[in-house]
Design a protein that fits this description.
The protein has about 110 residues and is mainly α. About 60% of the residues lie in helices and about 0% in strands. It is globular.
Length: about 110
């Protein structure tokens, strides 16, 4: 069986690297100070977070869910679409967990 050819475009890759690097740089000090259970973060908590931290969380959640699904591909466009859906879901479900919301966004709910 021939391996699948990967379609590689620089733009999504570059966006992901920049977002990750920026998010990691902003949050690295906080990560050393304490450990955060991401499953405990609710939509209502996002109002207290900086945009950079939210970006870092969304990238982490996307990777976590991809790992759980044994999917090692990163699709910046898909993640962006899921983030937009999650934003809308969060607005009407402030007490729901962010990971749960992102799963629902990914499933198209």
């Amino acid at each position: 069986m021939m391996p699948r050819k990967r379609k590689f475009t620089l733009k999504p890759y570059a966006v992901a690297v920049v977002l990750f690097a920026f998010g990691a740089g902003v949050t690295i000090g906080k990560a050393r100070a304490n450990t955060v259970d991401i499953s405990s973060i609710k939509c209502s908590d996002l109002a207290t977070y900086k945009t950079e931290y939210i970006s870092f969380l969304l990238i982490w959640i996307d990777g976590y869910l991809g790992g759980r699904a044994d999917d090692t591909n990163f699709d910046a466009e898909r993640m962006g679409n899921n983030a937009e859906k999650a934003k809308k879901l969060c607005a009407s479900n402030l007490d729901k967990g962010l990971v749960t919301i992102f799963k629902e966004a990914e499933m198209g709910q």
